[in-house]
Amino acid sequence: MQQVSTGNDGLLDSLREENRRLKRAVEELSVLNDLARAIGASLDSQQIMGSIVRRSLRAINAEQGVITLVEDRPTDPTRTLIRAMASSSQHEQFHLHNALLGWMQLNKKPLAMNDPLHDDRFRGVKWDSSIQTLLCVPLMIKSELKGVLTVYNKKGVTTGFTEDDQRLLAIIAGQSAQVVENARLNERERQLTKMQEEVRLAARIQSDLLPQTMPELPGYSIAGRNIPAQVVGGDHFDFIPVDADRMAICLGDVSGKGLPASLLMANLQATLRSQTLNLPSPKDCIERSNRLLFQSTSSEKFVTLFYCVVNYSTHDLSFTNAGHDFPYLLGSDGSVRRLETGGLALGMLEDFPFQEETVHLTSGDLLAICSDGVSEAMNTAEERFGDVRVEEVLKRCRDLTPDAIIGKVVEAVKEHAGSAPQMDDITMVVLKRL
Question: Torsion angle of alpha carbons 272, 283, 354, 300, nearest 10°?
């Protein structure tokens, strides 16, 4: 009879254990099913990771949980995007220790520590005294670590996290990794689309700031063109009426490229237009504009600028050159002169005494103002187009209209560059006395 009783007890224990495993399996399936529904209906990475952490805490019965995503940027390899804490915990929010992240990047497998202070694998690591136990599992996609799910401090027991806890958390991480990554990629795509739209709008605004039509000057023909290297650029040209007999012409090039350069150039355009009306003298206008630009920009930003005023009654051209590529003045007698008089680029010194010069234009004289994107255009052998080639094209084409001359110069630059990408904005203004 005793043997029968012992056998029955063993059978009951076996049934109880099997029942416990089945109950555990049902609970795990319920957790995973609930998690799948929660994260499958959202594209918000913050919301998805919040759901993962909260359900992990309930499933594992832990105090705190955190997901740390691994970034592609080498300067910022990790970034904690979501953290959740059980209401029963009074501790400060825990962060994933760099030593744990390094271990996870190396091993890419679950890690349980039920006595962190005495774990030989992390000797010398100073743990928060509130961390009694912790469990980490990797978020993997195609053998690549995308993040780490960590839970802290098992509640209600002194033995810490079990193998069942580790297995369940690993399943949760495996089921969640791709969903988290998809949400993150979706958000990045939305951010990129928004940025592209903002850049497109900035390019349109910048294009609208350029002269939409060429002015009609008695006795003269004039044209200008701007070809940005990026969607938005840092080059600009403008025609500003001074009075019935005078027109100001300017061409500038801001240091740098892209949106920052375009914003500074818009600022310069507004400054020049306001100062031209008050100070028609090129020297006075540029000195005042330089002072205003210096006061409103950072020290590493500057602008090269050629500024001139043509009087189409007297045919005098007064100019100052603020550190810009020297324009070409082709005389009707075949002479070529570079206009150098001026001073430093704008924004380098607050007070600088710019110089001014006046030249007389005779019939057939040609003024060509270029940004450095013309002379410094390079081919695949890194050979610059150069000033000599610019001058040669201008001499060959001087009998054409200003617009046609610009077209020939641009054509020659692109032919020289070949398959090499355009590295800088190309901007030109050509003025010709008839």
Answer: 0
Residues 6+ apart with CB under 8 A from 30: none
Confirm or reject CATH 1.10.260.40 for domain 205-433, answering yes or no. Answer: no
Distance, CA of 168 to CA of 24 (rounded, Å): 10
Q: Give per-residue pLDDT as tens, 101-116.
A: 888 888 999 999 998 8
| DSSP-derived secondary structure letter, 422 | P
Q: Are 432 and 402 within 8 A, CB to CB?
A: yes
Domain spans of the chain?
2-186, 205-433
Find the mean pLDDT for residues 41-48: 76
**Single pTM value for the model:** 0.66
CA distances for 380 relative to 194, 224, 412, angstroms:
34, 28, 15
- Express each pLDDT in 171-209 by its tens digit: 888 888 888 888 888 888 888 888 778 777 777 777 777
Q: Fill in the amino acid letter for 27.
A: E
Task: Provide the pairing of β-strand 336-338 with 328-330.
Answer: antiparallel
378-393 pLDDT per residue, tens: 999 999 999 999 999 9
pLDDT given for residue 87 in this prediction: 46
Q: Distance (Å, rounded) from C-alpha 251 to C-alpha 149?
A: 57
Residue in the block written with tokens 């904690």: 80
Question: On the CB side of 64, how many CA atoms lie within 13 Å of its CA?
Answer: 18
Does the domain at 2-186 match CATH 3.30.450.40? Answer given as yes
Radius of gyration over alpha carbons of the chain, in Å? 36
pLDDT of 81 over the 80 cut: no
The H-or-E segment that residue 26 falls in is helix 2-40
